Automatic annotation (TrEMBL):
It comes from the Bacteria. Pfam families: ANTAR. Residues 140-202 form the ANTAR domain. Transmembrane segments: none annotated. This is ANTAR domain-containing protein. It comes from Streptomyces monashensis. The keyword Transcription applies.
């Protein structure tokens, strides 16, 4: 299986990341080769540099080498095929085979840095030009967001792997590709982010019967005082999280801010929505370098944390202070989202460019009310939408486990 997405690449040319997953035997390699050629043709038409991510390829060998060799020969005169995150056995095989038109890099960042350096030197630029006019090319702001999203996916990959392993063992699935396909389909059908769904699979108690959560009844949406605006559907997580940030920016009269929610599988804050924050700061968050940031402290303490002067406040770590000051942030306020039991499920953070800024009493009350609304909605979402998705996942996987020979049922794990 190959999925593609545009990422930031050369200054003059973009790049397309082709994410490959599954197990490759001789037959699978032939099908993969045909699929890869189709993606490469589309990349050439769009003027994009192909980058193949092979981190999740389970098997390889001579069949894969033959497919790569045939593909690169057919691309004579085109840019080299860049491969990132290949497993050691495949990397060694490619080196020994001395395939022309293939470059290997340990990470996506390494590949993009090298391609950018080559473009700066004026070397290795493709002689061909895109058949798509420049106005239709993605903006570099969109590309930077895509790179940031890719880094976030890399951080969530271990949880996805754990969820694949759980459902493979629980339902007796033949390989991780089948597990991933069902997880992704249920995620899309219920509009639940894959990261949220797999985290729930990992932490939820295992099912013990035909229903994962027997006796569960539909829950009404809780009364929301700020978030209940016309056109907002509480079943759509992204829409509601964006609404939380919109209301927070308006209440605090802030020019920048972000919302992070707790991922229970890794017990960490994960960025879900942002506005007006500099790319360097967002990269800082996505890479997990958040030690000493006010929102992390607010989560740990379970109370609001205000930093009216970033330059002088001792609460911040030196690295966090440096990043905030470097992006023009001089004051910060973080409000935790607390459940009824008092546990923190997320944090709303606002940034201001003026040192000495503190929210007024009215603004603080509005932000506290918004945090209460957010906690009530998140609780409902996890007990309604997310559990609906888990029930559907259980039904589908139980059907796969039953197979043509009759019901076998899931194993407890």
């Amino acid at each position: 299986m190959i999925e593609s997405s545009v990422v930031e690449g050369l200054p003059a040319e973009g790049a397309v990341l082709l994410r490959m997953s599954g197990s490759l035997d001789t037959e699978g390699a032939q099908a993969w080769s045909a699929q890869l050629r189709g993606h490469l043709e589309q990349a050439d038409l769009a003027g994009l540099r192909p980058v193949l991510d092979m981190a999740h390829v389970q098997l390889g060998g001579a069949a894969v080498l033959r497919a790569l060799s045939e593909t690169t020969r057919a691309r004579s005169g085109r840019p080299d095929l860049v491969i990132v995150r290949a497993r050691p056995g495949l990397r060694e095989a490619v080196h020994l085979a001395r395939l022309d038109g293939v470059r290997l890099y340990a990470t996506l960042d390494d590949a993009l840095r090298e391609l950018a350096r080559a473009a700066t030197r004026g070397a290795d630029l493709p002689a061909w030009r895109s058949q798509i006019s420049d106005p239709l090319r993605p903006s570099y702001e969109d590309l930077r967001k895509e790179v940031r999203a890719l880094r976030a996916r890399v951080r969530s990959a271990p949880v996805i792997g754990m969820a694949q392993g759980v459902v493979m063992v629980r339902y007796g699935l033949p390989d991780p590709a089948v597990a991933f396909r069902v997880l992704r389909e249920v995620s899309q059908r219920f509009n639940v982010p894959l990261r949220v769904l797999v985290s729930a699979v990992v932490v939820a108690r295992p099912p013990d019967g035909a229903a994962w959560f027997p006796g569960r009844r539909p829950l009404p949406v809780p009364p929301l005082r700020i978030l209940a605006r016309e056109g907002r559907d509480p079943r759509y997580r992204r829409q509601m999280i964006d609404a939380v940030l919109h209301e927070a920016l308006a209440a605090g009269r802030a020019c920048a801010g972000y919302v992070r929610c707790v991922d229970p599988a890794v017990n960490a804050l994960v960025l879900e929505s942002d506005h007006g924050c500099a790319d360097t700061f967002l990269d800082h968050l996505v890479r997990g370098w958040d030690e000493g940031l006010p929102d992390l402290v607010a989560r740990l303490l379970g109370r609001r944390v205000s930093v009216p002067d970033v330059a002088a406040d001792t609460l911040l770590s030196e690295e966090s202070r440096r990043v905030l000051l470097g992006t023009g942030t001089r004051a910060v306020d973080s409000v935790p989202v607390l459940s009824r039991s008092g546990s923190c499920t997320g944090v709303i953070t606002l940034h201001w460019p003026e040192a000495g800024h503190r929210p007024t009493d009215d603004q603080s009350q509005a932000l506290a009310l918004l945090a209460s609304d957010t906690a009530a909605w998140l609780s409902w979402y996890h007990r309604s939408v997310l559990l609906d998705a888990l029930e559907e996942l259980h039904r589908e996987l139980t059907g796969l486990a039953a197979g043509p020979e009759g019901a076998r049922g899931p194993r407890r794990s």
